[in-house]
Amino acid sequence: MSSSNQPRIDPSDPSETPLEEAVVQRFKNPRDAFWSGIRDAAGAPAAVLFAGMVGFGAMGKTNGFDVWFTTSTSFFMFALPGQVVLLEMAITGSSALAIALAVTLTSTRFITMTVTLFPQLHQSNRNRSLYASVHLLAMTAWAISMREFHAIEARHRLSYFVGLGLLCWLISVPATILGFYLAGMVPAAVTLGLVFINPLFFLLTFTEVKPWINRTALLLGCIFGPIFFIIDRDTSLLTSGLVAGTIAYLIDRNFLRKKAGVLG
Amino acid sequence: MDALNQMSNSFSGWGLWIALVGACLGTYFCRAIGVFLSQSINQESEIFRWLAAVTYAMVAALTTRLIVMPLGLMATVPLWVRILICALAIGVMVSNPAKRLVPALLTGTLLMVGYGVIR
After folding, report:
1. I need a surface site. Which of A85, A147, A164, A198 has the fewest CB within 10 A?
2. pLDDT, tens digit, for every residue of A54-71?
3. 3-state helix, strand, coil in chain A (%, to 5)
4. What is the per-residue pLDDT across A131-154, written as a single tens digit (0 to 9) for each?
5. How many domains does chain A have?
6. Is A7 inside a domain boundary?
7. What is the ipTM of this complex?
8. Alpha carbon of B43 to those of A246, A255, B36: distances in Å?
9. One domain, residues A180 and A250
10. A249–chain B Cβ distance below 8 A for any pair
11. Is the CB of residue A134 less than 8 Å away from at least one CB of chain B?
12. Are B66 and A201 in contact (CB under 8 A)?
């Protein structure tokens, strides 16, 4: 390969962002990175997402929605918590406008998820095509990309992410359909396992988060999440994220790193 | 069983699809705003660090909500059982973070299924 092995290293060391470390040549070309993303998705992430979507499909069936509607939410929204809110509110007879607003509110995490993931892509990939790729972004692909990106050359990160996200997205559609038709046929104990595997997966990926600022944020998020949930359910993700994240940032800025940072 | 096009009785068919279109647009809107903002954010900036912290906190809050205050079937499992199973799975995980994701997931899931069987 003629291309440089030199990753773009900014000397203005942010000790925590897991990006500036010298990256070994991991992939030869974009196709290689893409298939590696597919392979990485094909293990635990796909299984977890599959289980979650099977559970969701069953939820749609048992509440009297049709298979087209239930599956459409997986295909077009691809955001499990939002899908669950949609069904819950439709069951309780909320208005279409209230439903749309509540779901949008649960999706605000995508703003910061995108903003923290995409700046890590190579400059040449940061163009309008990202508006298409971003549909593949969900918590599973985000968590894995955040973990893996530091070990991938910047110019191959998008290919890796698309491979990862594409498989996750594509697998969610048949999983929803399967769950819809399996509903009622599977013992409750198995359903319990299917529902539990999703949050458990997220919980386990937290143990792999390295920078102390993000570890602090995770811990505070776990504490503030339930508190704000009791205060106001719909906005609780946003408020607990902002409060816990800001406190973690301030702790990091004032205590965890010795030198004072400059606001950028 | 039921006809395929059976609708939720509390909701008319069209309203349901309109709600879905609104929900999909709202969800995509959040993703697109993120792309738009990410164009002007530097991965080495302070704002990036702060946003990463906010995102991790949000994701943690969502996960805690799913485990501590779940809806539906999971709510029938006592809280201490849910937390105990989580703790055991994390124990498996931290024994070797690089290799134990699948074993830890299996531990947690099978324990939950096991609880469902014996209760």
Report:
1. A147
2. 988 988 888 889 999 999
3. 70, 0, 30
4. 999 999 988 899 899 888 988 888
5. 2
6. no
7. 0.82
8. 18, 22, 15
9. no
10. yes
11. yes
12. no
